[in-house]
Amino acid sequence: MPYAFTEQGIGMLSGLLKNEIAIKVSINIMNAFVEMRKFLMLNGQIFERLTKVEYKMLEYEKKFDILFNELQKDENFK
What is the pTM of this model? Predict the structure, then answer.
């Protein structure tokens, strides 16, 4: 199972670890959180649009299922 830390958890951990490697790793992880936040902010509108498209596809899928089931009922009666 993967382990994950929050940004705050990394900050607290970096306060406890004092060797040079641990400090460098903590800084790199904090930088990754900053970059991730920038990425999400810059691409937020795209994510929103994708979510809307996904919901529309789910709606259409339900409608196609209903239509397909009705067509099958009609064929069974012939």
Answer: 0.51
